[in-house]
Amino acid sequence: MTDWAYSGYRRPALPWPQSAAGPRRRGGPPRLHALGVDYIYLDSHDKQLDFEALLAELELTPDQAAVMGDDLPDLGLMRQARLAMAVANAVDEVIETAHWVSRFEGGQGAVREACELIIAAHNAH
């Protein structure tokens, strides 16, 4: 995601529930910060509140946001965001809601692919 850091976009935010091992297994928040992720919500108990707080802090609206999901708790945010994305191994309802689905599973490069898609789309215009 280092290209993202130089793209001029605000850096991604990751809400991560306590049960998710991904960031912890691969180095945790220091590793995510090194990849250019400025906002990390570990142990998120209410993604909606975190989403609203992040949008307020960044002075954005949901229409200016992209959300990537994999499970049912992500549907509300996905329905609000301008761009709803899903990882390849998301539950059916999330895939059906998504505007775009990564070819990668969660933790296997899906977020990087999404960032590259956004950068390429921006560069095309």
Give an overview in words:
The chain has 125 residues and is α/β, with parallel strands linked by helices. The protein has one domain: Rossmann fold, CATH 3.40.50. Helices cover 42% and strands 14% of the residues. The strands form two sheets. A three-stranded parallel beta sheet has the order 3-4-5. This is 3-deoxy-manno-octulosonate-8-phosphatase protein. GO terms for molecular function: 3-deoxy-manno-octulosonate-8-phosphatase activity; N-acylneuraminate cytidylyltransferase activity.
Structure described in brief:
This protein is an alpha/beta fold and 125 residues long. It is 42% helix and 14% strand.
Give the distance, in angstroms, between the N- and C-terminal Cα atoms: 21 Å
Annotation field: number of helices: 7
CATH class: Alpha Beta
CATH superfamily: HAD superfamily/HAD-like
Do you know the CATH architecture? 3-Layer(aba) Sandwich
Mean pLDDT score: 80
Runs in which pLDDT lies below 50 for 5 or more consecutive residues are 16-26
How many strands, which pairing sense, and closed or not: the largest β-sheet? Answer: 3 strands, parallel
Q: Which strand-content bin applies to the residues?
A: 5-15%
Number of strands: 5
- Along the chain, the helix and strand elements come as HEHHEHEHEHEH
The main sheet orders its strands as 3-4-5
Number of domains: 1
- What's the multimeric state? single chain
Helix content: 40-55%
Chain-wise SSE layout:
Layout: H1 2-5, E1 13-16, H2 22-25, H3 28-34, E2 39-42, H4 47-58, E3 66-69, H5 75-80, E4 83-86, H6 92-97, E5 100-101, H7 110-123
Parallel strand pairs: 1-2, 3-4, 4-5
